[in-house]
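Case study 2.
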Amino acid sequence: MTISERIFEKLAQMHMTQKQFSEETGILQSTISEWKKKKTNPTSEKIMVICKVLDVTPEWLLSGIEKNGSRKSRADWYVVGKKTELGHLINAYNNMGKDRRNRLMGYVEAIESMEE
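Prediction:
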């Protein structure tokens, strides 16, 4: 299923018209109609406002993966906000040298083995 197909599926579930969607997102109705007619997808800068209006995650809109990670096949990647605790951890990891990364991964593996 494409991004635009997921958008129209969600609009139908919400009983929201293309006109209402256009008004809430600020996206021209003609643009929304083109997605449906030409089976094209929205541009990347429109994704977040679409997600907000439809109350869906970017993961769901882009891939069909639900918040709980359910889907026929799981994604090999995550989307993480930079200002979250996990985003901070990833940023710190990215700024470390190889030796410090290896040391951190050693701690992680040790903690994981304690939980088994």
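The longest helix spans residues 98-114.
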